[in-house]
Amino acid sequence: MFKNKFFIILLLLACGQLFALKPKYGGELRLFLNEPSSYMINVNDYSSLIFCSLIYENFFYATGEGVVFSNIFQQYYFDRQAKEFHLILKKNLAFSDGSKIEPVHIINSLRFYLSQMNLSAHRLKTVLKNISASGNDIVIQLQTDRIEPLELLLSPSLVLLAPKENVFSGPFIPGEWKRQESLELIANRYYPGGRAYIDKIRIYFQEQQQRELDLFLTDQQTDVKNFDCIEAGILQNFYLAVFDEEVSKNLKLALFSLFKLFGNRHPGKFHQLNALGSDESSPVSLRQEIFNEQKIRNLLKSSNTNLLAASSLAYLEGDFQKFFKELSVDINLNFIELEQLTTYLKNFKTNFLLISKIFLRIQSELEKLDLVLREVLMTGSEERVFQFSKELEELKGVPDRQVVQEGVARISAEILKRGLVLPLFQKKYFFLIKKKLSGRETDLYARMFFHKLHFKND
């Protein structure tokens, strides 16, 4: 009798521990990000990268350890002999409104991806023959078998798009948006990756006291009570792209100096950048003296200079305008979605574009230069980067590391010498996350899997 009672007590204790370890559903997560301009896909800065991952589902993810997985495909494989990459769609998947996810949505999402100014999309487009579907099997037909198509589908820009507006595929769906204040996100009960543990996420766009937030990004490693500080491994480079090589050298250097000075005025927020990739590993750096404040003022005070900036940088508009006013310079700053840039340049004259790109710290200088070529330089004209791109493609097949480094140095030096892209400053990122949050997992791009986050049981 005593043994039976003892066994029951042990069983109850074990069950209690099991339930205690089970993640708790519910609660609201408070997060700080820069306010997006819209719900359009935008992965040009780290804040936008995280925001898009909350409302859109990527075709594929890679963990920091290099493990690739998908929440929407039950199987995928490359038939090298037939030059076909197959994506087998899972059954009974739905968008946030409950409507069924069909193969046609995968095809349309792929076509939208191919229309973007994105390095991986550009590479896929150059070898693509056709996209078709047979039942739940989406077939990507290629012209060659000498590529790894999965690598080209790992881009954070490749997301599942719904056929209707305000319908989403990600772990959360937008709720109330109070402009310049906050945005509410609600757990998507149809999310292909499984319903999120947290019911709501409230994104704040204004600086809040740290004790009011559960997770936010910071520019430097810092020690805050009740928070863990995690390095993201992401670099965000800011550039001045010059469309017209014949533009006045003094005007170009004045604008370059203006933004260099802006970065220097915010030493905790921005770091010095003199290379196209990173100062630590790039074989070539720009050694250009900047003008002093007086010369900048004299050249830009009445220049009526038109400057376009990527819409992802709109959160810095207040800081830019304040700085322009302090220096008494005349800059007409306008923000634009990069997808609209080609059309804009056909109708309006502009010489300069302020743009940023994000890199993984672990990426090679060859990969970083490739991104600069395809996603910064190509925004103005594909023709002027053709020779650079051709040389870079040839370098990718070279096994000698020294030869590759010399090639990267030669191309970088030519771009900097001609002033086509001028490096301005760099941002580094850290996560500050409340200790009470469990289920922390990130992908290769340092994006948190927010649907796995949950508050620790008391």
Summarize the structure.
The chain has helices at 2-21, 46-55, 103-114, 119-127, 149-152, 249-264, 293-300, 317-327, 341-347, 365-375, 386-395, 401-418; strands at 28-32, 57-58, 61-62, 68-69, 73-79, 84-89, 128-134, 137-142, 159-160, 172-178, 182-187, 200-204, 215-218, 227-242, 271-272, 305-310, 331-336, 352-360, 421-434, 437-438, 454-455. The protein is an alpha+beta fold.
The CATH architecture term of the domain at 233-429 is Roll
Question: Mean of the pLDDT scores?
Answer: 87
First-to-last CA distance = 35 Å
Using only C-alpha atoms, the radius of gyration works out to 24 Å
Please provide the count of β strands.
21
Question: Helicity level, as a percent range?
Answer: 25-40%
Biggest sheet record: 11 strands, mixed
Shape: globular
In DSSP terms (H or I, runs of 4 or more residues), the helix count works out at: 12
Helix-strand category: alpha+beta
> What is the assigned CATH homologous superfamily of the domain at 233-429?
Dipeptide-binding Protein, Domain 3
Instruction: Give the class-level CATH name of the domain at 233-429.
Output: Alpha Beta
What is the beta-strand fraction? Answer: 25-35%
Q: Which stretches are poorly predicted, pLDDT < 50 over at least 5 residues?
A: none
CATH topology of the domain at 233-429: Dipeptide-binding Protein, domain 3
Q: What features would you describe in this structure?
A:
The protein has 458 residues and is α+β, with helices and mostly antiparallel strands. Among the domains are: 57-160, Dipeptide-binding Protein, domain 1 (Alpha-Beta Complex); 233-429, Dipeptide-binding Protein, Domain 3 (Dipeptide-binding Protein, domain 3, Roll). It has helices at 2-21, 46-55, 103-114, 119-127, 149-152, 249-264, 293-300, 317-327, 341-347, 365-375, 386-395, 401-418; strands at residues 28-32, 57-58, 61-62, 68-69, 73-79, 84-89, 128-134, 137-142, 159-160, 172-178, 182-187, 200-204, 215-218, 227-242, 271-272, 305-310, 331-336, 352-360, 421-434, 437-438, 454-455. Strands 1, 10, 11, 12, 13, 14, 15, 16, 17, 18 and 19 form an 11-stranded mixed β-sheet that branches. Strands 5-6-8-7 form a 4-stranded antiparallel β-sheet. It is globular and about 65 Å long.
